[in-house]
Amino acid sequence: MDEARPLNLYEYEALARERLSAMAWDYYSSGALDEITLRANREAFDRIELRFRVLRGARERDTSTTLLGRRHAWPLLVAPMAFARLAHPDGERAVARAGAANGVTMTLSTLSTTTLEDVAAASDHPRWFQLYVFRDRDLTAELVRRAEAAGYEALVLTVDAPELGRRERDARNRFALPPGLEAANIAAHLPPVTTDVGGSGLARFFATQIDPTLTWADVDWLRSLTRLPVLVKGVVHQEDARLAVEHGCAGVIVSNHGGRQLDTSIAAVRALPAVAGAVEGRAAVLLDGGIRRGTDVVKALALGADAVLLGRPVLWGLAVEGEAGVDHVLRLLRSEFEHAMLLCGAATRGDLTADLLA
Fold first, then answer.
1. I need a labelling partner for 214 at 20 to 30 A (CA). Which of 3, 21, 252, 278 fits?
2. Which residues of 23-42 are buried (b: 16+ CB within 10 A; e: fewer)?
3. Which domains does the chain have, with CATH numbers?
4. DSSP 3-state assignment of 319?
5. pLDDT under 70 in the chain at which residues?
């Protein structure tokens, strides 16, 4: 890249669109049906106003936070995202290395294009593993064992995808992984994600391989398999948050799957306060969906999140400049976050409270 590097995450998005194939761009960027929830995740942040404080002497800031007993340099993790090598040949390895350089924990997708062992070998920084429960429960249990053996520190169980949302751009493109790419963690056990004559190959894969019948009893089953803390991802209802705590989950991730599942579902940040209220500090609360600016991180924390997850912008950085692009995306966002903290009069994470919201 020349000296005119992007100034923000939106500029990375525009450049990524130029570099990615049409199928890859649509897969990464699209939402379900009319993409109303996809847009709402972003627009909801824009409608939240900050009532900043002054004369607080907050020149020196401590951005650190603690999640599941682990100190994080700042309250952000990389969200789980499938098929990163569609964006760049280094894929998930590059994301892991860039995350480590910025003190950011990566959450690796079950459907990564690099094995969980190879991602673990790319960096010794803490990492989490996102899990889908397959109809083949032995395969699911094997993934848990592999994640433990490779040193992953938490399991993130995605619960909002009993089947894939209707993503019309993928159907139109007949989405499939190109030759040379595969869902590496499961490729030895399951058929590849190939073109479906009737639409998206990924939709067909979900319909035939992912277990759509999960209940809270299956959360108990998963917890019985592992010593790792389990978080549930895809919670927007306060009653589900309360049940997650009752079933021993270490955390909940407020998310609507990036607007890719049920269209017209509530924007993630709008669901956050009720979920945080139901959890009452008994488990970690994270937010996934719509983060693009440092002020978004401030708003999420003020609304009750312990940390946020960053998704698509990581892929935009990866597509534009590989590992260096991911690194720059994370540095840009952290700089914006620290700047927003200063302008809000906040010296620590604990100063980002609800009274900052108008």
1. 278
2. bbbbbbbbbbbebbbbebbb
3. 9-356 (3.20.20.70)
4. helix
5. 1-3, 195-198
